């Protein structure tokens, strides 16, 4: 190979080198862009999975805090809301009303009309309580035919009026069962809470007031703390 050939090869190599550098930079930039896009996709996928897991957790929490028959809070869910409300009441010097309600003569409904009618009564009564309380209030079925209501932020002076409204709403809307109107009656008891109240004591006070109201409706010979 003579000198002219060597010079030509050298010249071609020098011309090709810039093109190679450009192609290399383009390849690196493309790979970087692809890697970034992959990371973004992975991050979105992880966020979607996290959102799904959080939704599932909320659904499970709702299931364990909800009464299956009525769709209201169960005792567990209600007490959680009471604790949260009490903590807020302590911070802001608030008060409210805790109510216990118990159906009157519920055993007779089951005996005369069957348990399906009894379940319908419970659902109807629970829905009636929910309809005649505010969105900020909490309504629960504690079990059996006993219900609880937390009237958040209600002033103590309004307690008797609000309980009277609930009693009137209960008697005003009977359950229509197989073409017949089944009247619904309930006894209510309440106590006033504030941020320093003890939850166990509150429940006992409201329960005692409810039974006192229930017994006052009966002839003396029928009065019994455990009667339904």
Q: According to CATH, what is the topology of the largest domain?
A: Alpha-Beta Plaits
* Biggest sheet, spatial arrangement of strands: 2-3-1-6
Number of domains: 2
Report the CATH architecture of the largest domain. 2-Layer Sandwich
* Main sheet: strands, sense, barrel: 4 strands, antiparallel
Nearest-angstrom radius of gyration?
35 Å
Unreliable spans are 221-227
- Roughly how much helix do the residues carry, as a percent range? 55-70%
Short description:
By secondary structure, this protein is α+β, with helices and mostly antiparallel strands. Helices cover about 60% and strands about 15% of the residues.
Can you offer a commentary on this structure?
With 228 residues, this protein is of the alpha+beta class. It has two domains: 44 residues; 143 residues, Reverse transcriptase/Diguanylate cyclase domain (Alpha-Beta Plaits), CATH 3.30.70.270. Helix content is 60%, strand content 16%. The protein has a four-stranded antiparallel beta sheet with strand order 2-3-1-6, sandwiched between helices. A two-stranded antiparallel ribbon has the order 4-5. α3 crosses α4. The longest helix has 62 residues. The C terminus is likely disordered.
Give keywords:
coiled coil; two-stranded antiparallel sheet; four-stranded antiparallel β-sheet; Alpha-Beta Plaits; 2 domains; 228 residues; Rev_trsase/Diguanyl_cyclase; EC 2.7.7.65; elongated; 6 helices; alpha+beta
